[in-house]
Design goal:
Elements: H1 3-21, E1 24-27, E2 30-37, E3 40-48, E4 54-58, H2 68-75, E5 79-82, E6 97-98, E7 101-102, E8 113-118, E9 121-125, E10 140-144, E11 147-150, E12 153-154, H3 164-167, E13 173-178, E14 184-190, H4 202-213, E15 217-220, E16 229-231, E17 234-235, E18 250-255, H5 266-269
Antiparallel strand pairs: 1-2, 2-3, 3-14, 4-18, 5-16, 5-18, 6-7, 8-9, 8-10, 11-12, 11-15, 13-14, 13-15, 16-17
């Protein structure tokens, strides 16, 4: 190999090593990364769904309206984010399934898509696929809207639904994504409504997740002042309200040993709050 090719190979190797080094292990099969580029401040968790030491969970109906950090503490979550849009009574807009089953009065419609969770498996289903009767493998679920990336292609602004004020204006955002092979699940929060970081449009969010994270499917969740990511009990982003907001439901990653199903939460079971 000549000197020029050798230097080029070393350069590529250093770039790849630096990229890998940006991921911080925060649990078995769970890595965390912060990405600041131009006007984007993003907080990302990558979950290896093949690791049986961890499990993805969503909120019980009795946990409706909790702040994300309080829910994370209650469940001993390694990481937690906010999930679905909601009304003034903190009722999720779409289907919600927690450890104790489907939330009363919630169902899947063409209005929202579903993030369906089972053992070692997550599927992101668009609003066009209505899940009237959840398959047996689906243990928990939250909803969101709209789909941002499908078949490894991010939707352009003109292809995304919604108003200019919502879809094509910059806002804080929360989203989830999947790798092509379905092995890696991504949880993403992007800050906004700040002087340096105005937020992102939905098309920019989809492009970011496709280009930076390599996701092949992604869906937007509730954003704005709801957007919050908690890692080991610490709020990592800057919620745009200046303080954390109560939200309808949540998604989190816990140790499998902390899973108590429909029983008391992990902290309650261990004598905590």
């Amino acid at each position: 190999m000549n000197r020029k090719l050798t230097l080029h190979f070393i350069s590529l190797l250093l770039i790849a090593t630096a990229a890998l080094a940006q991921w911080e292990p925060i649990g078995p099969g769970v890595d965390y990364r912060e990405i600041q580029q131009s006007s984007i401040s993003a907080f990302v968790t990558r979950v290896d769904l093949t690791n049986d030491q961890i499990k993805i969970i969503s909120s019980r109906e009795t946990e409706k309206g909790m702040r994300t950090s309080d829910w994370a503490e209650r469940t001993n979550a390694i990481v937690a984010i906010n999930a679905d849009f909601f009304d003034n009574k903190h009722k999720p807009t779409g289907l919600a399934i927690g450890p104790c089953g489907i939330w009363e009065g919630t169902r899947d419609t063409r209005r929202e898509g579903v993030v369906a969770v089972g053992k070692g498996r997550v599927e992101i289903r668009p609003q066009s696929e209505v899940m009237t009767d959840p398959p047996d493998w689906v243990e928990q679920a939250v909803s969101g809207w709209p789909l941002l990336v499908d078949d490894c292609r991010a939707f352009s602004s003109s292809k995304l639904p919604g108003s200019d004020a919502f879809t094509r204006a910059p806002h804080p955002r929360t989203a989830v994504g999947l790798s092509r092979d379905g092995r890696y699940f991504y949880m993403v929060v992007v800050d906004g409504r700040q002087e340096k970081y105005p937020g992102v449009t939905l098309s920019r969010l989809g492009a970011f997740m496709r280009e930076e994270l390599g996701v092949c499917t992604a869906m937007n969740l509730d954003g704005g002042g709801s957007s919050t990511m908690v890692v080991h009990g610490e709020i990592r982003n800057r919620p745009s309200d200046g303080s954390e907001r109560s939200v309808a439901n949540h998604l989190g990653v816990i140790f499998t040993n902390d899973d108590v199903g429909c029983g008391s939460s992990a902290v309650q079971a261990s004598g905590g709050k």
